[in-house]
Each structure stands twice: as structure tokens, then as C-alpha cells.
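Proteins fold reproducibly. Take a sample protein:
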Amino acid sequence: MSPFKGQTGLKRIFNATGYSLDGLRAAFQGEAAFRQLVLLNLVLIPLSFVVEVSRGERALLIAVCLLALIVELFNSAVEAAIDRISLERHPLSKNAKDMGSAAQLMTLGLIAAVWSVILLG
């Protein structure tokens, strides 16, 4: 067992919630891309309740928006880990960061595609 693994039960859930909130706070404060995606979500999610779509379509419109936030959290985590290892330029570090960025680009494309297909029929 890892010495970094802590409590179990409710104490673990309480601690994990705190760590998660710390991560959201760090992303919001330190990552402009995350703040931009939060703003996009603040526009698109309420908009999904205004347009006439089925409940399933609305859920999909919201899900792809939230997915972009999740992917950005992973992308930011990869970048932070790479920078923690070394600030030296290295091809593997560049690849890791570029792949994280590509994942986010794909997610934004997914948002555009899903919203277009649902709204334009």
C-alpha cells in the first residue's frame, strides 16, 4: 500500500472533496483557458434550456460542455506535471503538452458538432 493513501470511509470522502475543490480553485485562478471554458459553459448551459430540444438532447448539449472542462483539467494537470519535472525544453514534454492541447481542440470540435447537429437537425 502507498504511504500516501490516507483515511478510509467518510474521512476519505471529505478529504477527497477538499482536494477536488482545491484543484478547481487552482485551475480557475491559474488557467486562463479554464476560465474561458467556464464562461462558455455559463452561456451554453442556460441556452440549452431555452432552445426547444428533447430532454436527452439537452442532456447531451450540457454533457459535451462539461466534458470540455474535464478535458481542460486533465490538460492542465499534464502541463503542471511536465513543468514540475523540468522546465527544460524536451521533445517528449512538447509532445505531452501538445497532445493535451489536441484533446481540448477535439472536445471543442465535439461541442460545435453536437450543438450543430441538434440545433440544425
Q: What stands out?
A: The domain at 33-120 is CATH 1.10.287.3610 (Helix Hairpins). The mean pLDDT is 94. The helical segments are 9-30, 32-50, 55-85, 91-120.
